[in-house]
Amino acid sequence: MARPSPYSPEFREEAVQLALKSSKPTAHVARELEMNPETLRTWVRQYEREHGRQGGPLPASGESRVIAPLAS
To answer: Region entry Disordered: which residue ranges (predicted)?
Structure first.
């Protein structure tokens, strides 16, 4: 059985919104909130899956856009 989260749903929502709106990397936001960066990244990814990408900084996971080659 999973251990209950030490974070309230309100804290989780505020942390995700802060990470999405911040120009700082997710890991930096997590350190400011004194929490594990991977926990915050997981929450942000889950939020984006459930609500669609809302803009904000690019993910720090190395994802990038694919650019089609120019037609000659």
So the answer is: 48-72
